[in-house]
Model the fold of this input.
Amino acid sequence: MIHSAYYHSPFGCFEIKGNDHSITQVWLLQDQEAPPEDYHDAPEHIVETVRQLTEYFNRQRTEFDLPLDFSEGTLFNQSVWKELLKIPYGHTSNYSAIAKQLGNPEAVRAVGLANRGNPIAIIIPCHRVIAKNGDLQGYFYGLEMKRKLLELENPMSYGEQGSLF
Done:
């Protein structure tokens, strides 16, 4: 059975989906009217997802501890998503480095496509992947959202220029 809930965060409304045991999707709703927040009657792992996301957005959590199921992805995509889970809070990696970690340094574009197809936003931290030259690049929810998430995690490195004055 698929369960669904809606969570309103400082970054927008997320739809959280899961099966009876695991989280299968955390998706930011865009360009549509956000439904009312609704998760209180959801299964425990979905309520726990909301709790942990709230802590993350309040800078009280740096790691997620949730049962995840991304088995709907290809084996390559799953391998990329597992690598993304290894990128620590407040740090970044790049597409090329992930391709090398997977033993396929030529798969840079494939890593980018897998990143784009990440079904469990924020928790599988695809926002922590940047271009090799350090530029912010390629985020499904837009570069401004990516910058804001990186700024949340590491304000010294990704804070908006001039925001202190």
Summary: The chain has two domains: 3-57, 75-158. The CA atoms of residues 32 and 52 lie 25 Å apart.
